[in-house]
Write a structure and sequence with these properties.
8% of the residues lie in helices and 42% in strands. It is built from one helix and eleven strands, in the order E-H-E-E-E-E-E-E-E-E-E-E. A hairpin with a 2-residue loop joins strand 8 and strand 9.
Length: 144
């Protein structure tokens, strides 16, 4: 139902984790995701802990789904001295090519407990249907 657009993206994510670099708008970090079919819907779940809903941007143009998010540092008092900072900050982005069989006009987005969940219905034209055959010998049905 979807295709990866960059085969080296996972390698970039690992290098960013090891080097401690965070994303910028010109070179955002990748966000982890799961994708699966659940009944008549295609579900994509993105991990975005610590990101407010106002900092999440979801766009669909033709069959390209783009999700961008930004996690900013929490304001700290001058007397606070950071001992350890492992949570990545900056910009996160993911682009996914969606199949023509998905109804991009009816995407639903929910954000709960740091997980952005998109539910994309399977288009009616992609669902199985029966086709009648006409002819001299009568009508027969074939599953298609």
């Amino acid at each position: 139902m979807l295709m990866r657009t960059d085969p080296f993206r996972e390698m970039d994510r690992i290098v960013q984790q090891l080097s401690g670099t965070s994303g910028t708008w010109s070179k955002p970090s990748v966000m982890p995701m799961d994708a699966y079919r659940e009944g008549e819907e295609y579900v994509i779940a993105f991990d975005l802990p610590g990101v407010s809903t106002e900092a999440i941007d979801i766009d669909v143009e033709r069959n390209m789904l783009t999700v961008k998010a930004e996690r900013r540092p929490v304001a700290k008092a001058d007397s606070v001295k950071v001992e350890l900072s492992e949570r990545p900050l900056g910009v996160f982005s993911r682009q996914i090519v969606l199949a023509d069989t998905l109804d991009t006009e009816r995407i639903q987005a929910d954000y709960d407990a740091g997980v952005l969940t998109l539910r994309i219905p399977i288009a009616e034209r992609a669902k199985p249907r029966k086709i009648s055959i006409g002819g001299a010998g009568g009508r027969k049905q074939i599953s298609g």
